[in-house]
């Protein structure tokens, strides 16, 4: 491809130049809804469906849909007041039901559900393809039931939502003519300030948006007002990512916050005090959160604090390591004190993934070599030296800590509060426990935490421990495939720079290591997102249990592999930073190392190995296609980034500069171009068979990059390049179970045809 000369920067900045843009013969496809462009999409869809949508596909799709629509799967719930709320889709309700039940009813095999909102009926009545995106409740006055909620509805499954006030008791939206809140479709967020006031960040009604397409302002909206009339409370720079405004209504700790989200990894947080915004002074890459009187800190890089007091010790200049968790009293910190308690310190194998507060305890969800561990901390009880125990992750002088014994190896187990503000039902220290594994159907448990000294039947804590935990199974998901026939192994590949990269292999117990097994390798490797063990009936049915023809004497099933490459969060922020921007190549070297390890171990061969990824994972497999074509026979690439020269100008792409770099800056384009698949295609290369899929309504990545990549590959005469674009579904590619089943089946069918036939 030829390139133009470097463009001069806009007037007013004469000293800078913009990196050259390579010639793009497919730029016409960037008109997402143009008639000619959609005609091209329809032609591509018909071609792909003719190839893939055969009798095998129909059976595959039906099997996946049966899993997704199963009435035996767990209906996960959220507690508000005395009710437990759930959103549910099945065959009879493809768009879904928002409903609730009591705890006693939920415990039964067949709960009695009170339907609040039927999205299928709403869509039919309003002639709009609504997709339910959740509801935000107004905290009622003490002793009163929850009644009002702002319901979020997307017209096509994209990130832009319409927010409408809903009266739960009357089962209806509050009419705007009666003062009901009804906000136009836009990107943003909504938070209740009080019964008659919302805090809103939105791009609707002329409110300004950032270069990333998100809200730039936060406003205070009163009943009867339009957004354009609302008082503007908060505004950020146009080049920053987004503005957020929110109110914490915890009784006794009511607070209003605003966040200037500079980019994906940097924020400034402000607290409303005396009619003005008070910044909480931390480096922008230190994540903070509040709970009652506590302020928690998790630095993404090492944080040097001058004159810090740590765990009650002497004042000193202190460096807190990236990925640790610290606590301080919020008011003391705002007053200038720098007195911290160290709650968790990572090591080379263990990282903090998330945390959740019950009323009185803090629960930490950890990964150790990508297997879950859980710790429970009691802020009311300091830890004496040595009490924490080996590997507990707390320093002497911290909060009392105890492990939660609920995490089998090679499983993902997460604990989070049921309702930390529940006082009336004494459920404030209850927690949910969700456990899953590649061959272990999901189990939902509920438990209670109490301080040591209290006793409870079924306690899992050892004698003398700091916190007592009791938990029991509430619901279990059924098996959707013969999971007992398969085993999960963890292996470590060695990347180009010597780094050991873990990966999970799920395969039949009688797997033959002769290189002949169809193998699907999945990965992500970005934005500090961790890929953890998870049960998938769809993968079990469509890949593990599928069998090759027995012409050679033995029918083989598929092998499924998940790679935990750098760029992800499996080992904390350092694992992510190791593949940022100019170091991006490490993520791709890691993935290629896993592929090579699978081949070297005899699990598969190049002819039997394919890879699949979506979004940033689509960029990952796009780089496997263009940089490592010799390792793969097939690539399934979904809702992808692929044109890294123009990605900042497309949909929400500008918001990811912190992850990938700015291609307009010549020095940064020099490294970005090395992982821009759209610009790495060359004549004379034997590329893997390729399936690129996307969604017209994806307003995050957008369909444009997928379209252009497929068009360029086909124009180059590269054989076996297929493209499919759904109209609905947003970045997920599907807005209901039927669409999700078709999407998954098409990808699995493509890979199986390429690798097993």
TrEMBL record:
Gene Ontology CC, one term = cytosol
UniProt keywords, alphabetically: Hydrolase, Protease, Serine protease
Q: Which InterPro entries match?
A: AB_hydrolase_fold, Pept_S9A_N, Peptidase_S9_cat, Peptidase_S9A, Prolyl_oligopep/macrocyclase
Please report the stretch or stretches of sequence annotated as the Peptidase S9 prolyl oligopeptidase catalytic domain: 554-755
- Is Protease among this UniProt entry's keywords? yes
The Peptidase S9A N-terminal domain covers: 23-248
Q: Which Gene3D superfamilies match?
A: alpha/beta hydrolase, Prolyl oligopeptidase, N-terminal domain
Name the domain of life this protein comes from. Answer: Bacteria
Any Pfam family: Peptidase_S9_N
Q: Which GO terms describe its biological process?
A: proteolysis
Query: Any idea which GO molecular function terms this record carries?
Result: oligopeptidase activity; serine-type endopeptidase activity
Protein name listed in UniProt = Prolyl oligopeptidase
- The species is Arthrobacter cupressi
